[in-house]
Design brief:
Structural class: mainly alpha
Domain RNA polymerase sigma-70 region: 24-88
Pfam family, one: Sigma70_r2
Keywords: Sigma factor, Transcription, Transcription regulation
Radius of gyration: 20 Å
Helix content: over 70%
Order of helices and strands: HHHHHHHH
Number of domains: 2
Protein name: Sigma-70 family RNA polymerase sigma factor
Largest sheet: none
Domain RNA polymerase sigma factor 70 region 4 type: 127-172
Length: 185
Amino acid sequence: MDRSHERKLVENLKTGCKSSFQKLFDIYHKKIYNISRKMGLSQENAEDVVQELFLFIWSKREILNPDHSFNAFLQIISKRLVFKQIKSEVNKVSFNAYLQQYGMAIDNQTDDYIVFSDLEAYSQKGLDNLSEKRKQIFMLSKQHGLSNDEIAEKLNISKRTVENQLYRATKAVNEHLKKENISRK
């Protein structure tokens, strides 16, 4: 897109012009969706990122600076939203694995919520220590169920690298949970 055209659309968006918002959405939504998918999100979660991003843009339109690249701004915000989605999914996967490992039955929603919230906080601390690439590999394996070969192909890395990263991610999360007295290992 021509930089001057983008600048004009952003200027109009700042004043609440819905047609400029729609044009910017039409121009960028596929790109944001594709970035989200390449970062390992499911189709549904990638669509959620696009929706959340453009809702954010609309709600914060007054602070947009037409002199800055709108494309770069979208990419930065979308990557943050993708990482937020990944963290949420990792927490869900960790919680489900914990329930399966310890054979807990779900029968009380309030208790479940409290347990999930606590486990989510503990798991998140462990996951925050992982590099973004390691988190991505972990998510592709645990959340999306991709094989090591599929992950290697998708990320253009060796299968051995995938295996090493999965081993290190699992070990790091388990060590963190062990420190928090969550794991039996």
